[in-house]
Amino acid sequence: MNMRRYFALFSARNREFLRDRTALAWNIILPVLLVIGFAFALSTDDVDLFKVGVVNVTESGNSLPFLQTEHIQFIPINEPQAAITKVERHQLDMLFDPNSQSYWINERSANGYILEKLLQASAHNLQKKAVTGEALRYVDWLIPGILGMNIMFSSLFGVGYVIVRYRKNGVLKRLKATPLTAFEFLTAQITSRLWLIVLVTSCVYFGTNLFVGFRMYGSYLNLLLVLIIGTTSMISVGLLVAARMSSEEAANGLLNLISWPMMLLSGVWFSLEGSHPIAIALSKLLPLTHMIDAARAIMIDGATLMDISPQLVTLIAMSIIFLLISARSFRWE
Question: Would you kindly state where each structural domain of the chain is located, as residue ranges?
Answer without folding.
Answer: 3-41+137-329, 50-131
